[in-house]
Amino acid sequence: LLLDEPLGALDLKLRRQMQDELKAIQKRVGTAFVHVTHDQEEAMALADHCVVMNDGRIEDEGAPERVYARPKTRFSATFMGESTILAGKAGETQDGRVEVATRLGPISLPGTAPAGAAVALAIRPEHLILAGAKGDVALGTAKVSDVVFQGSFKRVLATSAQDPTLQFIAKAPAPATVQAGDTVAVSCNAQDIILLAD
User: Fold this and answer.
1) Model pTM?
2) CATH superfamily entry for domain 84-197
3) What is the distance, to the nearest Å, from the Cα of residue 31 to the centroid of all Cα atoms in its chain?
4) Phi/psi of residue 180, each to 5°?
5) How many Å apart are CA 146 and CA 169, to the nearest integer?
6) What SS3 state is found at 141?
7) Into which CATH architecture does domain 2-79 fall?
8) What whole-number distance in Å separates Cα of residue 67 and Cα of residue 55?
9) What are the boundaries of each domain within the chain?
């Protein structure tokens, strides 16, 4: 059954109810559904197998959890949810770890890349740590430009003090006291950084 943007015109609450209904129908009838959507949350909620296309080409495919957590391309990383993208240059790979030179300093993370290759590091908003606890990769400080309350979390935009062209997108817990104008330390854990060819 081909479903082409079937929930596009619905409000959020009804869309979520219809997602549950479509999943129930698919399980009941056992027919394969090809569901076309530009809504990434909808795709991840409904899909057993997710395919990300760009200009008629398959960029990435697999289980929704893998496509979100470990996208294969930069396009897939930015299309399937938000990411902070940090450009870098790969150094030597030793013991399954590569050191990447970035404008924020060297970052060592699990993975491999050809020495000298241009790479991109993608960090999902839920993996950025603002103030408080610290991850094992320090990303400097940033000035908070906007905080949007979204119910279960706050979406925080902050500009790096070390690289003014870099904007961090973070999810802070709903009770967090962060506000526009604050300067915060930013960090993350190395295993949460996605290494991509640039």
Assistant:
1) 0.87
2) Nucleic acid-binding proteins (2.40.50.140)
3) 31
4) -55, 135
5) 10
6) strand
7) 3-Layer(aba) Sandwich (3.40)
8) 18
9) 2-79, 84-197
Instruction: Note the Cα 115 to chain centre separation in Å.
Output: 25
Structure tokens at 100: 């990447």
Q: What is the pLDDT along the chain (198 residues), one digit of tens a residue?
A: 999 999 988 998 999 999 999 999 999 999 999 999 988 889 999 999 999 999 999 999 999 999 999 999 999 999 998 999 999 999 988 999 999 999 999 999 999 999 999 999 999 999 999 987 788 999 999 999 999 999 999 999 999 999 999 999 999 999 999 999 999 999 999 999 999 987
Cα–Cα distance for residue pair 12/93, rounded to 1 Å = 46
| Partners of 97 in beta bridges | 94, 110
| Strand residue runs (E) in 28-166 | 34-36, 50-54, 57-62, 84-94, 97-102, 105-110, 118-123, 129-130, 137-149, 153-160
